[in-house]
Amino acid sequence: MSKPKVLFVCLGNICRSPTAEAVFRYKANAAGLDVGIDSAGTGGWHEGELPDARARESGGRRGYSFAGQTARAVIDEDFLEFDLILAMDRRNYSDLIAKAPGTQVGKIRLFLDFGSSEEKEVPDPYYGGPDGFEHVLDLIEEASDGLITHLQQ
Length: 153
Prior knowledge:
Blueprint (H helix, E strand, L loop, with lengths): L4 E6 L5 H15 L5 E6 L11 H9 L16 H4 L2 E4 L2 H10 L8 E3 L19 H23 L1
Parallel strand pairs: 1-2, 1-3, 3-4
């Protein structure tokens, strides 16, 4: 069986989904899990840009690397290539469902469905202060642990 592939998706692919990619890559590696990991945005406004400096700074303080990441938009091939496409919020989820071929919609889920938090959406920290990026990390770390458990079963 080929290794599972996971795509994390937010709006612009510069805050939440790159953070999820960095955190999950670290945690999957630590768990010895062989998994393909990428991130993308439902929109392409930031195509080719590095993740937000605040996301990199907050994540870096916790030991996560954003090396090699640049923003990109979701493309049609992603729906075929990835086994799980994990949306950061309901708007991203709806946008992905609308774009996906009908046979692929079952792959699309809210990322925080894998966590135990009461929250089901990763809030966008872009227009807020540094505390927002820390909260995003907390939610992503917890959901990443749940996703690893899911993939190991």
